[in-house]
């Protein structure tokens, strides 16, 4: 696979400052754009996390690395201080578990000869 920039229309989102939004419609449109970008990023994250699972000596839920997960949450908390570490830990736990589930499903599909996901 070549190293290329993710080119999704969903990622070409202008994110206005919350205080610049004057109507419910404007705010909802901003949320829709952010959600589209977030969905594309989560999809890519799950794919990359699947690679990590294949490369680790022990993959899947058994191979979770709490220290690495704490590092991820701490870095995100610096970027999103309003959400804080506790909320981000819950969010990232859900993201990580979803990625592990997808990786496991793909692993089973490959073993069963069904290709990928």
UniProtKB/TrEMBL annotation:
GO terms for biological process: chorismate metabolic process. Residues 18-107 form the Chorismate mutase domain. Signal peptide: none annotated. SUPFAM superfamilies: Chorismate mutase II. Pfam families: CM_2. One of its GO terms (molecular function) is chorismate mutase activity. This is Chorismate mutase domain-containing protein.
């Amino acid at each position: 696979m070549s190293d290329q920039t993710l080119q999704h229309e969903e990622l070409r989102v202008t994110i206005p400052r919350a205080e610049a939004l004057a109507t419910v419609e404007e705010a909802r449109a901003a949320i829709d754009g952010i959600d589209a970008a977030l969905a594309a990023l989560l999809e890519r994250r799950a794919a990359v996390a699947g690679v990590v699972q294949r490369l680790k000596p022990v993959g899947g839920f058994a191979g979770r690395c709490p220290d690495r997960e704490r590092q991820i949450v701490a870095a995100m908390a610096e970027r999103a201080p309003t959400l804080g570490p506790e909320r981000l830990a819950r969010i990232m736990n859900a993201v990580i578990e979803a990625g592990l589930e997808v990786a496991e499903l793909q692993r089973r599909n490959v073993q069963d000869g069904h290709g990928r996901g």
